[in-house]
Write a structure and sequence with these properties.
about 300 residues; alpha/beta; Rossmann fold; 2 domains; seven-stranded mixed β-sheet; two-stranded parallel sheet; 9 strands; globular; transferase; SAM-dependent_MTases_sf; methyltransferase
């Protein structure tokens, strides 16, 4: 359930900032690897007024400092690292199908950045999962990068989100694919009645930070979701989670607060994920964590 807000432009939030950034000479230099992280951070700060005028959420500006200079190289390096861990066969697995064209965002905005969509697409192409579950699927945008390759590999996907409004958008987008099931329910309730097992689980859920249960506030929900899905995972199943951010090289003090909050909200999840999955944080714009379930015994 990626955080969403209504802005003048629907869809990926980066699409609001992209036209402003692409007009800057420094953007091409950044993509060519000619700017350091600190230099790029100063460029973003200078462009802030124009980016905000374009409709980009002001609180999201610091994340633009984390966009990778070379997304393809970043993805290749992540897949190479996963290959060294034995999680994927190698870094060169090309998607068998492209991202779904004409995706309807239903007036919603998503905080999945381009390289995060492409990373999931490439990862799924390499893994070839037969049964995938998305917990906190929102309106299905991140899933839309994975679904073509899941279907091409004769797999099936289940998207679970408790919000009926976003579930309707997802259902409309995947209505032509019988291999995709959209479930409007809490993940815990759905999984308590589910007999399926999965070899890929994707987490992107969040609850209000004033939730009455402190353990569930914000991304604290991740631990409860992982505990609920763990009995349904095969040994060797892969876990992918969004908003895993504990390290940052931008120098922006904004991320000191993000990291401190994540250490509070995600501490129980990270302990479980690292022990059971060998979970690793990768430096995408908003942070993606990936790991592979070692054994049911090690996760107990």
């Amino acid at each position: 359930m990626t955080d969403g807000l209504l802005t003048p432009i629907e869809g990926p939030v980066f699409d609001i900032a992209r036209p402003v950034l692409e007009r800057l000479p420094a953007y091409a230099r950044r993509n060519a690897g000619a700017l350091s992280n600190s230099q790029w951070a100063r460029v973003v700060d200078q462009a802030r007024p124009a980016i905000v005028r374009a409709g980009f959420p002001p609180h999201e500006i610091p994340f633009l400092k984390r966009i990778p200079a070379n997304p393809e190289r970043l993805i290749t390096n992540i897949l190479a690292d996963l290959a060294r861990q034995g999680l994927v066969a190698g870094p060169d697995a090309a998607p068998t199908s492209g991202h779904m064209p004409g995706f309807n965002h239903g007036g919603r905005t998503t905080f999945i950045y381009p390289e995060e969509g492409a990373l999931l697409e490439r990862l799924v192409a390499s893994l070839g999962p037969r049964r995938t579950i998305f917990l906190g699927s929102y309106y299905g945008y991140w899933a839309s990068f994975a679904v073509p390759n899941i279907v091409a590999g004769v797999g099936r996907a289940i998207l679970v989100d408790p919000d009926p409004a976003v579930a309707r958008i997802a259902q409309a987008n995947f209505s032509a694919q019988p291999e995709v099931e959209v479930v409007c329910d809490t993940a815990e309730r759905y999984l308590s009645q589910c007999a399926d097992t999965f070899d890929l689980v994707v987490l992107d859920a969040e609850l209000p930070r004033d939730h009455p249960d402190p353990a569930l506030r914000g991304k604290g929900l991740y631990c409860r979701l992982l505990q609920a899905v763990l009995p349904h995972l095969r040994t060797g199943a892969v876990l992918v989670a969004h908003n895993i951010l504990f390290n940052d090289q931008t120098g922006d003090p904004f991320f000191d607060e993000v990291i401190a909050r994540n250490r509070t909200e995600l501490s129980a999840f990270m302990e479980l994920a690292k022990n059971a999955f060998g979970f690793v944080e990768y430096q995408t714009t908003e942070g993606v964590g990936i790991g592979q379930l070692r054994s049911k015994a090690s996760s107990a």
